[in-house]
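Task card 7
Instruction: Convert sequence to structure tokens.
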Amino acid sequence: MSSPVDNAPVALEKKSSSNGDAEAYKVQSENALGAQPSPDDFGFSEAEQKAIIRRVDLRLVLTVGAMYCVSLMDRTNLGAASIAGMQQELKLVGNQYNIISLVFFVTYIVFQPPSTVIVRKIGPRIHLAAITILWGGCMIGMGFSGNWRVMAGLRVVLGVLEAGFFPSCVYLLSTWYTRYDVGVRNSMFYLVGCVAAAFAGILAYGIMHMKGLAGLNGWRWIFVIEGLITIVIGIAGYWLLVDFPDSKRDTWKFLGQRERDWICARVHQDRGDVQVPPFSLKEYFRVGKDWKVWAYALLFFNTTTTTYALAYFLPIILNVNMKFDVATSQCLIAPPYALAGIVMYVTSKIGDKYRLRGPIVAFNMMLVIIGLPIMGFHADPAVRYFGVFLVTAGANSNVPAAMSYQANNIRGQWKRAFCSATFVSFGGIGGIAGSLVFRTEDAPFYKNGLYACIVTSIANLIIVAALSWAFYIENGKAERGEKELEADEEDFQPGFRYTY
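Output:
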């Protein structure tokens, strides 16, 4: 597939105008030789450039953030439903709750690798809106489950549908922004979803009071109402989502062609991979030979083990371990996630400004390592709840930090697609681990789960150290001109350097 940049001008004929769209530009003969335009060639003032990026932020980041909100809410509302009566009505015993939690991730992992290829072929609007509407219907079905097997089966279907969402969003965001713009955008995308989903506990508490309406228990209404919300947002997403910047499909023209060409030129100047080569299955999987791809994925696995453990078991831990009542447990979920939103935004701003990625990941993991022993072992429940703040802030802030770390150090469209899929797939495996680490038989202290989360956090510090050393070696080769001799065509770009 060719990019609009391939057909964009390398020089512009500028005309004075107060309206940027009125400024004409023309294709020069150099374009026939395949020259790429510079962003400066388009003649946009600094104010116009900021206005274009702001429009992209509002249309893209907020839309996928809102859709991710319902995605996160729908996959993690089991904890709220559990203490709202699901455990008793479905007569869950032994490890049945754990099974219901983890079966989602089996299909969620298996169906992720094709998703970034599909979204390129049919476009984000159709792909993301359709699966969102369908999983909303699946959520409504959960509200009418008669036993744990039906619930588990619907969770399997939910995994199939949600599998295509997160990797497609990560990939889509990375194609619109340069490497040192993407940190804040990843943070805002995840922040909108994470903080809003945190208040799902309060929403669930309110919905619980519909108990008895239409003969349904309160926990059933949690699934039904949240499923309806998901369907509405999925329908809105079809009208609001944007396509890839280089796509020729109609995206409701929220940007003019000249503005989209400028976006493409900007990304190409930054990392030189705006063009999309023809898809090749062999080339797609060849990317797997790069060990760094799996290091990024393992980094995300370690992160999501803790985030999903919190999502599924925090209401239960607050209720069983810290002895808060059901209503208080539902409401106490929100404040730690609000702190997480602040931490992830501030650290992302610092990361983009100083072009840092690894140290941000390490800082987040230190918060988790400090917070887990406090959360698990202090005698005072109020102090243990303070530990919840540290763990929630560090673990959740590390999701966009790891996304940006990976996005900054990947080149090539199909390599980016493959890496996004493997990255999120390992996050799904982390979801399986997170579903299992806090076992019912370990109540009320859940020591094994705490130890597992501490180990994964320490492992992330080791991975960051290994990647930083590898980046130091590779950047040194590039500085000395050695990299050009050994790198393959896709991976090498003059001037490209890995981000520590």
